[in-house]
Structure formats: structure tokens, C-alpha cells
Amino acid sequence: MKAWIFKGRDASKSKQPRKELDQGRPYDVDTLIEAYYQNSYHASCINLKTICILGNGIESDEAVRKLEEIVREDSVFTLLHKTILDLRIFGDAFWEVVKTGAGVEIYHMPSWTMSLGKSGNWVQEAGRERQEFEEGSVWHFKENCLKSHIWGSPDYLPLIEDGTLEEFSTIKSYNRNFFGNNAIPDSIMFIKGGDIGPQTESTLQRFFRQKFGGLENAGKFCVAPVPEGVEIQLERLQTVSDGKFLGEKDSLLMEIVSCHGVPPRLAGIMIPGSLGGGGETAGELEIFLRTRVQPMQNIFGGQLDVFFREVLGMQTDISFAAIEGLTNGAEVALQALKG
Fold first, then answer.
1. Where are the domains positioned within the chain?
2. Could you tell me if 223 and 184 are in contact, meaning their C-beta atoms sit under 8 angstroms apart?
């Protein structure tokens, strides 16, 4: 009996050509970008985790000094923030490693511009420009992914796969269209006792749009002018009760923050019946920092250790300074995030 063991070594560094392992991302880049900008709660969770993981930056002065020497176009703090944000949104982040006579230079490469070429090398595309990189000139950070040996995936991918974010967006679009077309799509108008010409019909349509359409006209009563001998009958097609979809929307909100592992209050969601005191908020943040943020800091710090060892020949043990900076300082951290 043979036992096949898949080595823990990054498949992107395998001798086997990358294109023979897998070529495409396990997700659509545009879908993740749209989700980030269309759902404020989803974006808030991503931004919160990014800020907390970065904290006050790398604690090792030696590592920071080395990065200050080789990072180009960004400060070290900005480079790390961009890298962590890419990891949180896409599950992948990239640095270009340029070897010069003086040593090495590092540049951030937006994750959404990266792909694998047919040769198995990394390719960057921006607009009409396309650049293929030689082996060893791109450093790839990634989150664990069960769908790919090469690509990472974001931890919120289930929200995309099961349609939670799409359903939330659909509810918002429905309500937005309802208020934008208030009373027009919900009723039908019957003309009795006469005939109206195209000009009169156009006048009536314009009148109802002006008097009923828009949020500011919700619930208004009005009298419609009609030609002599013509009777108008309005039949209500549906009755919309206050708070329609609110229950479903609340359920989706809780699913979003639960998938991200962010306490609802930290995402700006108030739970009915909760006290909302500073101590309760500080406690939630403390749990979040210890159970969610610190493990992600350790994982990213470990990947940075590999970069320092393999590219720069340095032995490091990267850790990040906690954002609170004080004993029992979770409330301080919350105020920093709000500010």
C-alpha cells in the first residue's frame, strides 16, 4: 500500500510547471471588487481586519530598517497596508522584486492586475499594457485555498458563492427603485367614459411622475386633472408594508459579519436589547483581536519571514505591534478606528 503525501511547500515554487497544476483563479476578480464597493458592511469588515492586522506596524526595528532601504514608491507602512488589504480582498498579494547592482528593490503590484501566463510565469496587465516577469522577480503572498495549489482565496468567499452579498444588493436595489418610482409601478390607471389622445396621455404620465415619483412624494395625496367626460380609476396592485425586507436584510447582515468574524457592533450594527456600553464594546474588540486578528498577524508575519530569508538572507521573527498600545486598551483601539 502506497501513501501519497502532498508536501507543504508552496506549489508555485515547485519544479513542476505551474500551468500544469492550475492556471486560473478560483474566483472572479471583478466580482470581488464590485462586492467591496457595493456593500458598506462587507467593506467595513475588510477594512477593520486590515487595520487591526497591520496595527502599529512591524515591531522589529532591524526588519523595518531593511524594508526602508529597499521599498520604492511607498512608505513601508503603506506597502504593508496595501499588501494586507489585497490579501483580505483577493486572498493574494504581490511584490515585484527587482535585483540591482546595489541590492534589491521592492514594489507593490495590485493583485487584480496579476495572472499566470501560458509559460507559467507571472503576468501583469493594466489597460493595454502587459508585462511578463521572469521566475524569481515576483513574490507571492497568499491565503490558504482548497480550490487551488497556486492561488489563494479570501476568507469571505462563501458570501460570494452562496449569493449572500448579491441578495443583499438586490434588496437595496428593489427598495431604491421602489422609492424612485413610488406609486407608479404599484398601481394601474383605468380610463373610463371617453378616449384620450396621445398628448393628454403624455400629460397624465408626466403629472403622476412629478406628483408621486421620488422619496419626497411618498404618501402624498393629489387630484389629477382630466378632460371633461373622462373618468379615471386607480387600482392598487400591491400593498407595501413598512419595513418590507427588514427581517431578511438583518439576517443577511448577521451572516456577513459572522463570516468575517467581526462583532456586529464593530461593524456599526446595533443589536436590539444590547447595552452598548464602553465595557461591552471593549470586550468584543478584545476577543476579536485575540481570536481573529492575532492568528492572521502570525500567518502574514510567517510569510514575511520566508521573504526575508529567501530574498534578503535574513533570519527574522516578524510580529506586529498591537494597535491598542496600552494595557486593557481595547477601547483606545476602537476610538483610533473611529477617528
1. 11-167+301-338, 187-236
2. no
